[in-house]
Amino acid sequence: MSGTCTSGFLHVAGCYRVMIAPNSGVSVAVTGPACGPTAMVEPLSVLIQGNIQVTNTLVNASKMCYHIQVVNPTSRDVWLKS
User: pLDDT tens, 31-66?
Assistant: First the structure.
């Protein structure tokens, strides 16, 4: 790693909504900056839509699309918009 820290937001990739079932986790395709061979995606310190949680995920960030792990700890479906 180069030691350079890149900060920014990720966006759900594709043109379809993504459903996260209650009390489960899924891998979600996202777009973000291409910032090197690997990067650590970390959760925000604020609530995200539907109270979902992003887990720490090490990604191949040499391209602008990668997959992250998202958990829905609630008892209802959560839909993410692309």
Answer: 988 888 888 888 877 777 788 999 999 999 888 899
Q: Quick check: is 39 in a domain?
A: yes
DSSP E strands: which ranges in 1-82? 11-12, 18-20, 24-31, 39-41, 53-54, 57-59, 65-72, 78-80
10 within a domain of the structure (yes/no): no
Q: Decide if pLDDT at 1 tops 50.
A: no
Q: How many domains in the chain?
A: 1
User: Containing domain of residue 31, as a range?
Assistant: 27-80
| CA–centroid distance for 76 within its chain | 19
Residue type, 11: H
